[in-house]
Amino acid sequence: MPESTEHGKSSESAVSALYEELLAAWNRRDARGYAALFDPAGAMVGFDGSQVPGSEVADHLTPIFADHPTAAYVWKVREVCSLTDEVVLLRAIVGMVPPGRTELNPAANAVQSLVAQNHAGTWRIVLFHNTPAQYHGRPDLAEQHTDELTRVLRDSSG
Predict the structure, then answer these.
(1) Contact by Cβ (8 Å): 39, 126
(2) What pTM value is reported for the model?
(3) pLDDT in tens, 24-67
(4) Which secondary-structure segment (H or E) carries 152?
(5) Is 58 helix (H, G, I), strand (E, B) or coil?
(6) Residue of 72, 86, 83, 79 lying closest to 121 (CA atoms)
(7) What is the dihedral sign for C-alpha 51, 55, 60, 65?
(8) 3-class SS at 23?
């Protein structure tokens, strides 16, 4: 679990690592590993609008991973900022690569926000919100989102 011994940059780095572990757990289809990153009193808002208490994240994800071939995340962190010494906000854009494919599915693009809180040196997610990035009426923004993540995908596989 990411820990921080200092505030500021180290807190932001710890929360960036927490976020990366969250998406890596999703990509591994590891419901328990994903859920372990949440504060039990926290919450998750899924891509479809599902609202799940932090204590129920594993129960929510286990059947999804068991019954559906989930796509893998590709992400780019846009901002990480300390709100207080013990609370950090992270904002990112994501895309997903469907199983058996090598390119992003633009219909699954999203914007994610994560709020983490430090409890005795351990960072936990208190809110994770995953919102579809549809950019209604602004196809240039939708294309920019996909292009930016396609570059991330190419850089990570090359």
Answers:
(1) yes
(2) 0.91
(3) 999 999 999 999 999 999 999 999 999 999 999 999 999 999 99
(4) helix 139-157
(5) helix
(6) 86
(7) positive
(8) helix
